[in-house]
Write a structure and sequence with these properties.
Shape: globular
Helix content: 25-40%
Largest sheet: 7 strands, mixed
Order of helices and strands: EHHHEEEHEHEE
Mean pLDDT: 95
Distance between the termini: 25 Å
Radius of gyration: 15 Å
């Protein structure tokens, strides 16, 4: 596996990986209606590309195929972290997250899905609050989590 910086030519592949991963990995914690509202399959690629370029964004590749990605805002907001369903539990999310966390100096905040909560908890993130977000008129529960810089080992 290789981890590299994002390129604008990656955007379409990342949008597809996002959709596929949400619908496969998160299906154990969310209903089909919630998954459809979260990942509609219609992404504004120009807006995503702009966001990825403004953030520190890394892409994991294996055998020339994109298998994961993540991005961190300069403020310490971990925006997205997704690994292809067929490549789960191989250390890809850990490797991506290691690089994302190293890109900022202060505390990190993320909005984790119920599926991702255990991953972040193992990395030292603490639950700030459980919340409901509304997408396409459908409520989804997620968890705001924070990793405080002083607690990093």
């Amino acid at each position: 596996m290789e981890i590299r910086r994002y390129r604008s030519t990656d955007c379409k592949a990342l949008a597809e990986l996002f959709y596929d991963t949400v619908h496969a990995v998160n299906a154990r914690d969310y209903t089909k209606a919630q998954l459809d509202a979260w990942a509609t399959g219609r992404v504004d690629l120009a807006a995503w590309d702009r966001s990825f370029r403004e953030h520190f964004t890394v892409v994991a590749e294996e055998g020339g195929c994109v298998v994961g990605f993540g991005d961190m805002a300069p403020s310490g907001y971990l925006d997205r972290l997704y690994v292809h369903a067929g490549f789960q539990r191989r250390g890809i999310a850990t490797a991506l997250c290691d690089q994302l966390e190293a890109s900022v100096q202060g505390d990190i905040v993320t909005q984790a899905s119920l599926s991702a909560k255990p991953f972040f908890a193992k990395r030292g993130y603490q639950v700030v609050r459980v919340q409901e977000v509304v997408r396409q008129g459908i409520a989804l529960t997620n968890v705001v989590m924070k990793k405080v810089r002083a607690s990093w080992a």
